[in-house]
Amino acid sequence: MEHNLEDSIAVLRRTPAALNALLRDLPESWTASNEGENTWSAFDVVGHLIHGERTDWMPRVEQILNFGESRAFEPFDRFAQAKQSQGKTLPQLLDEFARLRSENLENLRALNLRPEDFGKKGKHPALGVVTLSELLATWAAHDLTHLHQISRVMGYQYRDAVGPWKAYLGVMHCTGHGA
Amino acid sequence: MEHNLEDSIAVLRRTPAALNALLRDLPESWTASNEGENTWSAFDVVGHLIHGERTDWMPRVEQILNFGESRAFEPFDRFAQAKQSQGKTLPQLLDEFARLRSENLENLRALNLRPEDFGKKGKHPALGVVTLSELLATWAAHDLTHLHQISRVMGYQYRDAVGPWKAYLGVMHCTGHGA
Lengths: 179, 179
Prior knowledge:
By secondary structure, the first copy, chain A, is mainly alpha-helical. Chain A contains 7 helices and 2 strands. The first copy, chain A, has helices at residues 5-23, 28-31, 42-55, 57-67, 81-84, 90-110, 132-157; strands at 121-124, 128-131. A two-stranded antiparallel sheet of chain A has the order 1-2. In chain A, α1 packs parallel to α7 (132-157), α3 (42-55) runs parallel beside α4 and α3 (42-55) packs parallel to α6 (90-110). The longest helix of chain A has 26 residues, at 132-157. The two termini of chain A are 23 Å apart. At the A-B interface, α1, β2 and α7 of A face α1, β2 and α7 of B.
């Protein structure tokens, strides 16, 4: 499946509602628990998604369009949410994520990207040359990676409760792959 | 985290809405694609969840309460959905799953389970002795395993589109664990 703007937007605009349906008002035993030291809870992941909306995806789109490969992207701070989510509730974070995502997708539409834009290049600080098309596909796939992570982190909380069925539950055998 | 009926119901009642928000009216390039021969698409997974609502979870709850360990559960047919989903659309399956889940949770509530019920035992045809508590925890964790799977199957469709970012996306490195 090649990257296609409408396919990416179709995922990007659904993620806030999907996370809202899954997580809002869920007991904290599910949403505040992680997989052990230096791992993330569902609450942490939503904070990370918010930080991406603010500092990563659309700023990088604009940088590719305005500066091409002449300037590397700012590195993305994967730990910024620890400070930024402090004192907030999960429903507040879900609302903030939905609002920012909606604004970003409006801004993306307003760019009126043409087919020839998708091959434009930018410079990732670690990965090197990347295209606008790869950036947009990654924005959507990044949502999926964190939905995958949230379901895994939640599943982990029941790793003992399921008894011998653990053997059959794939989510209990996912080792996280650093994400 | 020990099994707790309210925690399990909290997940079980959210799954249909979460899948609905994620999948309804999403392009078929996402929902009808799988990970290769003998693997499932998101469409197949929703059919599998429906079959579980009809034949697996509540019938096994009732069997534990009525017969204990004296009779092994019917084996669960993991491939029944291929036939049963035929000719249906994904929105129809999402509606059917939501209706069946809602009915099953009403029936579960109507059992008025008491603390002493959760230790009651049943016989799994392959795993041997299991408890009612483990069955209920597994019902919830099974939702999470399939949410984990759906996000992985969707992510797989963009494995090339994301270019070098693939290295950073955990969902692209999950090998499925047989689920």
